[in-house]
Amino acid sequence: MLLRRFAIPLLLTAQLLPGLALAQSAPKFDPITIQAQGSFAVGGTVAQTPGPYNNNAPSAEGQSLHGDHLYAFYQIPQNPKLLPIVMLHGAFQSARSWETTPDGREGFQTIFLRRSYPVYLVDQPRRGRAGNSTVATTIEPTPYDQLFFDQFRLGKWPNYFQNVQFNRDPAVLDQFLRSVTPNTGPYDANVISDAMSALFDRIGSGILFTHSQAGGPGWLTAIKNPNVKAIVAFEPGSGFIFPEGEVPPPMPSAAGTLTAEPIAVADFEKLAGIPIVLYYGDNFSTEPTKERGEDNWRVRLAMARLWVDAVNRHGGDARLVHLPDIGIRGNTHFLMSDLNNVQIADEVSKFLAEKKLD
Amino acid sequence: MLLRRFAIPLLLTAQLLPGLALAQSAPKFDPITIQAQGSFAVGGTVAQTPGPYNNNAPSAEGQSLHGDHLYAFYQIPQNPKLLPIVMLHGAFQSARSWETTPDGREGFQTIFLRRSYPVYLVDQPRRGRAGNSTVATTIEPTPYDQLFFDQFRLGKWPNYFQNVQFNRDPAVLDQFLRSVTPNTGPYDANVISDAMSALFDRIGSGILFTHSQAGGPGWLTAIKNPNVKAIVAFEPGSGFIFPEGEVPPPMPSAAGTLTAEPIAVADFEKLAGIPIVLYYGDNFSTEPTKERGEDNWRVRLAMARLWVDAVNRHGGDARLVHLPDIGIRGNTHFLMSDLNNVQIADEVSKFLAEKKLD
User: Per the UniProt record, which residue ranges are transmembrane (chains A, B) (predicted)?
Assistant: First the structure.
């Protein structure tokens, strides 16, 4: 695999950097040649207020609002592979998740662009640059840094896990915590998957990467649109949907109770038509514990295993990779920006090659 | 000018496209080679809630929130010019303003990248991907499409201006209106200029492009940070600051009253040390009118003229270009994405060359 050999020196170079890599002083990577890049909105709706519009004394009357669309930024490399990759972020995040890592290395956006995939980064409806929502919300500044540190498995605040794949420079944690951005309207998996389906209508066939909360909307997108040819889900944590009559019981944990939802068998079986892989990282017990941050992932992994079994029981091709089982240790919830993110990308590349998607 | 000749065929090719240019079917532009790209947060603050943090029963106690930073995405071309360009969007917008135009052509992000400038696109604090605010807000879905159509001078709703530099395909207006995104916290020119100053601390010397409402935070950034070596302001509409004792009287208009603010003379004179150019477009009268959309710009242009005079009276190098005066007609409020945006970019390139900033 030429591309794997190409990528390894990048990681080694970057790891030698002291602290944060600044743009201007970043190591000189091999240049990337881009055929086209740009951005657009897709999906969404128009909310119309009745009445006549008075140009010179405007009120809500007769005016409309465009909202609930997603925003996508794309880059098409020279000599691109046939299938683009669409990357959908998780809760409290934007497309930022896939860009530069908190310690200044290349994220999956640029890593997969270098591997010749057209890459589409999405800000989901009611988040980031797709902020216009048709439903109101209130944003309270909520102090969550320590909860995120635990729940995203950097460690147990204030201590990092011994083997964590995260640079402990305080400036790196600062960058990580500033990737958090709030909902600008109520979270709605249907609104998100409708816009994602419109995206796949626009771009045609592609591979969908999801992170965390995006797992649920990701499954729904593939059900709604046959242009989704594969799903690579990084630590999907909620939104697990099962065929009616096969929904597992709720799973209590120290972080709350995880529930699954029923959908029609015919819809579920649309997921059986495409290859799916789920990756989970390290540093949580598969046995019950009182540690909230860890126990949260115990039940999500357990639910994911049941979900993969259900997909395969219905004739599907789903796989769950718990990275410690294949000797990859120390990963946080943010597999795509961890210190070993090139190794994770290599695992994904192997999967895509095996499924003839590259 | 080699670069101008290079850019012209791009415009002609793109204008031949029927309707929206989709990514996959976009005209094959000359490829762009990028040395590095990525994103980061800079500036902002940390809000700390007192008390001990309980990992297994988390509340606000003992937790912190990172907020009020900006988000920047940068691209460094091969053989870059010395000074990067930083682009700061206006009200209701994000860095999206500078990307692909609503009709699918290249925006200033890629145009100036092709002209060998490193380009930094900013989402200002409390907007877009820099959504985490230390101050709460409520977001109401406000129907503003028709007001924006008038105020951004596409025409007088529902009619376009006869010579407007905007593609009348309804899909283009849809894209334009979906670039709107709300504040996720109160607008605060000081919070924005503090984060912008932190950005210029990080990247060093650079050229600042501002659009519309960003004019005000732009002047403040240059006052706070000597790394701002020039300002190119596209239709600055508010935030005009004058030396104490020289503040002009408020200017009433059909769209409300425009006021200016005083600052210390010593601060104002920091603006006299750098070249500044302000561009304004077409389709508004310089005489009072009852047309709200137009009259709004009459007073903003008038205030801008007084402001340029004040800068120059204090020894500065400021210039105002009302584009119709140099024969460039039909521009909306979004000069950088209008149909003639390559022509506008050429005017800017000429300015930068004249000031030895390229």
Answer: none
Instruction: State the CB neighbour count (10 A cutoff) for residue A315.
Output: 9
Q: What is the mean pLDDT of residues B324-330?
A: 98
Could you tell me the fold of the domain covering A2-15+32-50+64-354?
A: Rossmann fold (3.40.50)
Query: pLDDT of B41-77, one tens digit each?
Result: 999 999 999 999 999 999 999 999 999 999 999 999 9
pLDDT at B234 over 90: yes
- φ/ψ of B185, rounded to 5, equals -170, 170
Is the previous residue joined to A158 through a cis bond, with omega within 30 degrees of 0?
A: yes
- What's the pLDDT band for A293 if we cut at 50, 70, 90? very high
Candidates B36, B133, B178; nearest CB to A66: B178
Residue B254 corresponds to which tokens in the numbers above?
Answer: 């059909």
Beta strand ranges found along chain A (DSSP E): 32-48, 64-77, 85-88, 119-123, 137-139, 155-156, 159-160, 206-211, 228-234, 241-243, 251-253, 256-258, 261-263, 275-280, 317-322
Whether A220 has a pLDDT exceeding 50, the answer reads: yes
- Polymer length of chain B: 358
Enumerate residues 128 to 187 of chain B having a beta carbon within 8 A of any beta carbon in chain A: 128-147, 150, 156-157, 174-175, 177-182, 184-185
Is residue B4 pLDDT above 60, yes or no? Answer: no
For chain A, give the mean pLDDT: 93
d(CA A233, CA A228): 13
> What DSSP assignment string belongs to A160-180?
EPTT-SS---HHHHHHHHTT-
pLDDT tens string A20-47: 444 444 455 789 999 999 999 999 999 9
Determine the straight-line distance between the first and last CA of chain B, rounded to whole angstroms: 12
Range B335-355 average pLDDT = 98
Task: Give me A114's structure tokens.
Answer: 């270098």
Closest of B300, B268, B278 to residue B233, by C-alpha: B278
What integer pLDDT is reported at residue A29 of this predicted model? 72
Best mutation target, B24, B98, B112, to test chain A (most A CBs within 10 A) = B24
CATH tag, B35-48+79-354: 3.40.50.1820
Backbone phi and psi for residue A25, each to the nearest 5 degrees, phi listed first: -110, 15
SS3 state at B43: strand
Is residue A9 helix, strand or coil? helix
Residue whose tokens read 């192997």:
A350
Q: Please list every residue in chain B whose beta carbon sits closer than 8 Å to the beta carbon of residue A138.
A: 136-139
CB < 8 Å from B in window 190-249 of A: 202-204
A262: nearest Cα among A237, A239, A279, A289? A239
Give the list of residues 6+ apart from residue B194 with CB closer than 8 angstroms, or none: B43, B224
What does the angle CA B128 – CA A204 – CA A67 come to, to the nearest 5 degrees?
30
- B290, with CB counted inside 10 A (0-12, 13-18, 19+), is exposed
Q: What is the pLDDT of residues A45-78, one digit of tens each?
A: 999 999 999 999 999 999 999 999 999 999 999 9
Helix boundaries (H) for A178-251: 189-203, 215-224
Q: Is A162 exposed, middle or buried (0-12, 13-18, 19+ CB in 10 A)?
A: exposed
Q: Least CA distance to A137: which residue of chain B?
A: B139
Beta-strand pair B251-253/B256-258: antiparallel
pLDDT above 70 for B278:
yes
